[in-house]
Amino acid sequence: MFTLIGIVSVVNYVYRQNTESTIHNELVVAERVFLRLLQERSVRLIQLANALVGDFAFKRVMATQDIPTISSALKNLSNRVRADTAYLVSTDYEVITLDSGSSEAEQVFFAADLIERAEESGSATRLMVIDKTVYQLIVVPVLAPRPIAWLCIGFAVDRNVLAQLKQLTRIEISLLSEQNDITQLHASTLEETDENFQAHYKTNSDGSFWRKSGDLYLSRWIDLEHDGNGRIVAVIERAWESSLENFYRLQWLMMAISLLSIGAASAAAFWLANAVSKPVQMLVQGVQAIQQGNYDHQVRINSEDELGKLSLAFNDMGTQLLEKEKIRTLIGKMVSPAVVEELMKQDIVLGGELREITALFADLEGFTGIAEQMQAQELVRLLNEYLTYMSNEISAHAGVLDKFIGDAIAAFWGAPVDESFHAQKAVYCALKMQQTLQVLRSEWKERNLPELKMRIGISTGKAIVGNIGSTDRLDYTMIGDTVNLAARLEGANKYYGSGILVSEHTHAHIKDVFLCRELDRVRVQGKRQSVSIYEVIAEKIAITPQQLEMCSAFSEALEAYRIGELEQAEPIFTRLVEHYRDDASKLYLERLSAFANSAVLSPSAVNDLAKNPGQDY
Amino acid sequence: MPGKILAIFIVFIVGSANAEVLTIKITDKDGKTVPEAVVMVNSQGADSDSISVKEGLIDQIDKEFIKYVTVVQVGTAVYFPNHDKIRHHVYSFSEAKNFEIPLYEGMPEHPVVFDKPGIVSLGCNIHDWMQAYVYVTDAPYYALTGDDGTARINLPVGEYAVEAWHPRLKESIAGVRNVKIEMGKNSDIAIAMNLKKSIATTRAPSTSGLVSGYR
Predict the structure, then answer these.
(1) Suppose A461 and one of A360, A374, A482, B162 were both cysteines; which one would form an S-S bond, judging by CB atoms 3.0 to 4.6 Å apart?
(2) What is the pTM of this model?
């Protein structure tokens, strides 16, 4: 709107300027036209006069020198051309006669200088005021065949002549004479009779001036004739107001247009707001909702156009994001978040890598039996509670939960993210799991739930880890001897009555941090290599003196057993059984007695795990 | 006609005894030579034999008067033969001779006798540009300057007054000069004239190519 006002003002100003300069130009042109008109008129009148004086009869009349005859012949002549006045002047510049026949004869002609000019050029013309009327005087010689007299005819420049000019140019014109600073009006195309003209007006740089007389006029002087006595001038002018008529019309039109366009613009803005801004706003809200995780925010735009389509697409997107989020959460529940992260980061790829990992297997003692005694719902609830706590611990220790196999848990450390302390973390985790379970046991006891005991087997070594499965269904899992060993160790806990068993490889990594005791040297089924197994007692910084004592005693006894010093070993084992109710020691006592009853010379240093009955895995 | 010319010739020869040549050169104020100027010589002393030719001729050929200026003595009868196929209407409103020969062809019946001294300005009524002058003089000796602006007159010894005239002369007469003709000596004088511009009608284009038209 301000632009419009600005435009209107500028156009206003420019048009006024334009009008003024247009009028001025018109005046300049009118001046030229008027002067040209007068000139042509003069030329025509001279030709007319020349034709007149060719009249032989008139020459004869002149030769008679009879003044009255000459005077009437002159009048006759002047009537032929409708001259307003006529004089016959002798070659000595004396008036011979007038057409009016008045007694001005024998006087020196009042325009003798005009005759002189005619002598020079063959004819002459000028404007002159005679008795309050402006005449165009024409002087031509009467040739017979040399000049015998001068004919001077005069044509009044009256309103009709001026009207001719006005007809051509639509300019008002007034004829004035100035003498001694007195201005006299002789003829004018203007209607009002009381036109006042001063002698002097303040003119602009372009020569025009403003004159106020009723209307305001833009005017211009034209100098027509001047001599020692004064001058004859014309004033050409145009009324300002009438010139501006067009302009006012334009102004009104512009006003109307601008109002219309303001109206149209407002309507357009309103429509635009409805059609575009609001839907866009709704979309923005939608995006913000999604930013905040609110995927089921629906954007409702009902139009058929692009925005409507956009809103449909947007809603689709929201739905898809929601699904993806659900899937992600679901996946996160099935697979460790660390794995998910890793999977998200890389492209999903089959195959894996050989890495050094620590594998952990955990199982509940005699769970099948317990399971049979419970309701399905109750059982699942309990199991889930247990599994939740345990998997939390695994996550807390930066481990990767591989899978649940019924009540068993498989986990690993050292993949997919590099972990230098994978063995230690695994063992920390195992200890924490046992502690947590202990707390849970007392809780469950209060709830009349069965007592659950957990066995954990941990092994460290190279294994193959990766996304194993088909393209549609992947499992990020571990495969290898290390894994098998961990599983076996988990089962072996039952045999040794231990809670956490680790392989010697694991032991090598953790022995500085945890107090362990070597229990046995075993060979896994199908393998030739034997491996020592250790029971994890506690963190070294948290051990009790009893635990320390028991460990050192056991290791002494085991040493003796292995080198065949059975008499030395036996009492220690017995004491350990009595003091600590140590199942491992009990086992060795059984072995000792079995050995004593058999014919074998020395007890086997290595025990085959597979041979032990009652083992379930 | 031939008889008359012969007569003039004889008279000239007879009259040229004891005659010297007077050369008169006429120029205008700017120094340009003035052809067709009339020179009149009046004797200061006793009247001498003057040549008097009593007949003159002004032709009309191809819508022009031939010649433009003619000098005749008072009492000369001038004929105006019309050699054109169209008629002419010769007139003059001059005080020295006011006459008309309206619309005639061939030779008019009577010549025009110029019986008063003065300047007669001739025109043709139907052809505005046709103009001629007859200078009627009572001087015993007269001549016209040629294209070189000079005239030569044989004069017997004596004292004379010389005057000149031209159609465009501002005054009525130019310079009265006294000159003394002596035995065996040719004299010459120069006269400067004050001339005005001519006013005339322009002529329609000529069919014959005769030199004419307006000075």
Answers:
(1) A482
(2) 0.51
